[in-house]
Amino acid sequence: MRDSTDPSSRPSGPLARRLAGCALLLLAVASAGRCEDGGRWVRLFDGKTLDGWTVKITGHEAGDNFGDTFRVEDGLLKVGYAEYESFGGRFGHLFYREELSHYRLRLEYRFVGEQCLGGPEWALRNSGVMVHGQSIDSMTRDQEFPDSIEVQLLGGGGTGDRPTANVCTPGTQIVLDGALDRRHCIESGSATYHGDRWVTVEVEVRGNERIRHIVEGETVLEYSRPQLDDGTPLGSGSISLQSESHPVEFRRVELLRLDD
Fold it and tell me: DSSP for 119-131?
């Protein structure tokens, strides 16, 4: 048998072109829906229901979706306050059913409409996704935020700079640039996104090792060793989407599981 490295043993002409075409087709089929990490993106929101998610709103029991705050309309996951007379400190979180450790979370969001009457000034065009959070069952009835790492989602106010995908730390702290950083919120290096345009944010979570924020394909913030305020390491936890008084919509919420 000829050595396969011998040029004379390789098919040529129309046969070679057909074989090359078949190889490319097989490669495309094998890689469809997959990514560079070798996993597969899974939709956590089906565009029709809130199956797999549970609401927790301050002052209410888990599962009580006060004022239809979180709902599905027109294929979008919407956070709204049409049935509120006033916000009244009713901070809410929509918890996904699983505890997660090593993963990438990808979502598209946009801010719409006007802030709910009575919402705090800082919450204008402000929402977030919480990672490495405490369980919904461990939250008290009147607790405002789960102990977690918050990837803060912000919209611009029409003028000036206001980066998104910042990190905030309710009940937690992180290591940034090699040193423990106890600031409550730390800005990312992202651009500012004014108006109601859709913005894509990814969060790469590697257990207790590293968390990376990515906006429109660009890494804008990276830190390590997430932990509770008492120093307890956070290697896994819940994920949840916030309601903080300004209407926000999500049209994609997807998860890619990573190897430990």
Answer: --GGGTTEEEEEE
